[in-house]
């Protein structure tokens, strides 16, 4: 459920007309609904109410500090994948004991930062990383709590770029090597192995791969406990899918029921790292029609939003619904919605039936709350779009539009070329 609905023929975000925000802050812009964010977080978190658990929202899906602050205030923690995300989480006052740190390539600088801040745990992805964290913890005279991220070799049936738990993926440690990693960890004085972790992919639309992964993890927990390990955390990652088009992903309560049933009475605190399922359908990208162009092969609607604002269609061939902000009863035509960027891969949607667009019309690209702004770039020297948070009949700019000055601020011209 989300709060983007037509009232009369106008698209609203909660009680604010989308057109109003577009006129005030300009386009392209991201708009998020606070009520939807809240509702999605609560729905997910309360699905696991019966179990001891911590919902660690995956920062990379949407890392605006206002949104992190919201989830923190609702009792959530975060899953981070870089020092920059840790910095954001701390800015948003997320308590460090609710922060878990994933990722295959943590640098010394990032490890030190996380140790200093005493995060809950590192999800480690290789034995070299384990040794590196041990060395840094020793240097800082502390102990690092870690979970082993296991690669359970499960096909999540999703796009290859976002499947992460198969043998051929770079993530985690194979179930075979996990026992050895545990033995290694035992000999490392500054490592405290407290849990197991997995994250098998994103935008999963069935529960079976989650359950299969959990089966492997559970048997590993049992094996490790027999060998004396004190496994008190089981982190099941994120990955639950959402409806972009015709998908029928499990609801959070169905996902929870299947997992809790499979878990039985395993005595662990559960950690979840949902990203997309919380923020995906809580945001839209609003864009304006600059030109329309008819060719023999195609009809193009050229918008001021582009692949640098929302790269998912170009990168993964993802589907995003596109809706007119002002609905009309004009006849429809089949169009490609494309941006101004000098790449033929710059499209937001292809072969869509849309009411005839005219210059100046606003279009809403739906389901853009996850991996939208966070994957945006300055390609073609386009300032990144602003982010707006709507609550009831009010809206708040939670990130300003970048300026042309922002684009060149970190750059400099050496003296021999004349200096700045
Ligand atoms: C990206 C990621 C997530 C979140 O995935 P979603 O599909 O957005 O839920 C969780 N955990 C890890 C380790 C990730 O890399």
**CATH hierarchy: architecture of the largest domain:** Alpha-Beta Barrel
Strand % is 25-35%
In the CATH hierarchy, what is the superfamily of the largest domain?
A: Alanine racemase
Number of strands: 21
**Low-confidence spans:** none
Structural class: alpha/beta
Helicity range: 25-40%
What oligomeric state best describes the polypeptide chains here?
Answer: single chain
Major sheet:
9 strands, mixed
CATH class of the largest domain: Alpha Beta
Instruction: Tell me the Rg in angstroms.
Output: 23 Å
Distance between the termini: 52 Å
Averaged pLDDT, please?
96
SS element count, helices: 12
Small molecules bound: pyridoxal-5'-phosphate
How many discrete domains?
2
What is the fold named in CATH at topology level of the largest domain?
Answer: TIM Barrel
Shape verdict: globular
Which short descriptors sum up this protein?
nine-stranded mixed sheet, 2 domains, 420 residues, Lyase, Ornithine Decarboxylase, Chain A, domain 1, TIM Barrel, 25% strand, binds pyridoxal-5'-phosphate, globular
Characterize the structure shown:
The chain has twelve helices and 21 strands. By secondary structure, it is of the alpha/beta class. It has two domains: 4-31 and 280-408, Lyase, Ornithine Decarboxylase, Chain A, domain 1, CATH 2.40.37.10; 34-279, Alanine racemase (TIM Barrel, Alpha-Beta Barrel). Strands 4, 14, 15, 16, 17, 18, 19, 20 and 21 form a nine-stranded mixed sheet that branches. The protein has an eight-stranded parallel beta barrel with strand order 5-6-7-8-9-11-12-13, surrounded by four helices. Helix 7 (175-186) runs parallel beside helix 8 (208-226). The longest helix is centred in the middle third of the chain and has 19 residues, at 208-226. The protein starts with a strand and ends in a 12-residue tail after the last helix. It binds pyridoxal-5'-phosphate.
